[in-house]
Amino acid sequence: GPQGVQGDTGTQGPQGDIGAQGPQGVQGDTGTQGPQGDIGAQGPQGVQGDTGAQGPQGVQGDTGTQGPQGPQGVTGAQGPQGVQGVQGSVGAQGPASGAQSLVVTAADADDGSSDGSAIASCPVGTFAVGGGFAGAQGSVTLSGPQGGSPATGWQVAGAEGVTAYALCAP
Fold this sequence. Notes:
Blueprint: E1 102-107, E2 117-121, E3 127-134, E4 142-146, E5 153-157, E6 163-169
Antiparallel strand pairs: 1-6, 2-5, 3-6, 4-5
């Protein structure tokens, strides 16, 4: 006979229980390492970064050793004239008014001999500061101060007819 009509879908049945977990599978073998890749091309230079903030001041360093002396500098310009100094004290009293030198003479006694001498002596309180002679007939062997230091006269010797001169001063 002919097939019958399909019947209505029946109601869904209850869900079944969860089954037990199966055992873990065995770990597989490690694969072989692949070949190293080529080095890549250098990338472009990056843009310059911003200036960083100023760091804190460092501690003061030790004093260094003294360097060698430098060359002499050029002479500086002349400075301004200084202020006038204070007046000095009064000086010592000078010689008495009218004090001066005098010339004293002494002549050889012309006794006809070939040699002669003369001593011009200064008055007491004066001293010979110079001297000389004149009128000598022949060679003079001595012309100089006489009487110690300071000299008290002038002595001339060696020539007949000589006159000695002493310049005397206080």
